[in-house]
Amino acid sequence: MSIKPKVLWIGSRAHAKASWDKLSEIADVQFCTSKNRSEFINDLKGKYKDVVSIGRTAELDVTGRFDEELVSHFPSSVKTVSHCGAGYDQVDVEPLLKRNIQLSNITTPVEAPTADTAIFLLLSALRNFQESHDLLMKGEWERTGVKSAGAKYGHLPSYKTVGILGMGGIGRCIRDRLKPFGFKDLYYHNRSKLSPELEGDCKYLSYDDLLSKSDIIIVSVPLNKKTHHLINKEAMDKMKDDVIIINTARGAVIDEKTLTEYLKSGKVGFLGTDVFEFEPKVDQELLDLPNCVSLPHMGTHTVESQVEMEDFVIQNIETFLKTGKVKTVVPEMYNVDFKHEALI
Questions:
Q1: Is 279 an annotated catalytic residue?
Q2: Structure confidence at residue 11 (pLDDT)
Q3: What is the phi/psi pair of residue 330, to 5°?
Q4: Which of 130, 237, 267, 305 is the most exposed place for a label (fewest CB within 10 A)?
Q5: For range 165-181, the mean pLDDT
Q6: Is there a single domain that holds both residue 63 and residue 114?
Q7: Of the listed 131, 189, 250, 308, which one is catalytic?
Q8: Residue 207 pLDDT > 90, yes or no?
Q9: How far apart are CA 80 and CA 66, in angstroms?
Q10: Residue 285 a catalytic site member
């Protein structure tokens, strides 16, 4: 009887029980019981010493960041790390490359729920629903009798131009959800211009042109060294006065301190955000601003999304076990030949 390859799952929850059970037919699936980073490192020398694939949630409570120091303790048996999220900024790619370890992330399962969240934030900002809700909750409508509780007027989509910064799967999903609302124009900027089939009805603009021509800017780029504080003072100065910024990517893509000051001055008219630069710590001054609608990172916070994402991790692991390659290797590894062989 052959020994099954060992797979490790790190996370407090296992939503896709049926899929894990199925994977257990071909792999020895273990669920991490380490209580902290130090214990995890010790366990890598013991009960996890021959693990071949590691799946992980975005939670950092146990292991902390997957950085060079942690990766240096991985046993030589490790061939893949599968991150249960689209953004993988909690995992350092270079140390994995040096160890010839493939890194995969989540693609399609996160697109629809994240796009839904972006549309909610956009409509709330555009129509000024947040301020009106807050005034209603404070009893201002009953106290004053003023129309809409005294909230400022919002705007109609048909008069506004939207610029999508980042036209990957999530960006295209956002584009498709924008169409029925009848926005005046839809623009995008990406690392490179997309094919006509992928562009759809969106028009490509340079980065500076997108900043200067858009009434609404939706941030949908991954966080990495190149995109950290991509939206900074210089970028915001190029934007229209009263611009609306929507962020469902990562908080640190935007210089949050400068953004707060520009919201207070009115240069940025409204912010709709699901992410923050130093989350879960969030500046209360930003949250209290009437022109900020915010969520505590809820883009994929649905029962179905959690199951689908975990299923996708399992697909990456299973694909590797059967072919030697993960299903969705991250862009930094597109052209790398890891020379891994199938294990089953």
A1: yes
A2: 86
A3: -70, 155
A4: 237
A5: 96
A6: no
A7: 250
A8: yes
A9: 13
A10: no
CA nearest 116: which of 203, 230, 218? 218
The predicted structure's pLDDT at residue 61: 83
SS3 content of the chain, % helix, strand, coil (to 5): 40, 15, 45
Q: Taking all residues of the chain, what is their mean pLDDT, rounded to a whole number?
A: 95
- 79 and 201 share one domain: no
Is it the case that residue 60 has pLDDT exceeding 90?
no
Q: Which domain covers residue 324, as residue numbers?
A: 6-85+303-333
Reply yes or no on whether 297 is catalytic.
Answer: yes
Across-strand partners of 81?
A: 54, 103
* Residue of 59, 69, 279, 285 marked active site: 279
From the candidates 297, 308, 310, 318, which is the catalytic residue? Answer: 297
Statement: residue 313 has pLDDT above 80: yes
- Distances, alpha carbon 245 to alpha carbons 186, 211, 217, 233, 316, in Å: 15, 10, 5, 14, 34
Residues 312 and 269 in one domain: no
Domain count, the chain: 2
Domain contains 207? yes
Mean of pLDDT values over 271-291: 96
pLDDT at 1 (0 to 100): 46
Same domain, 207 and 313: no
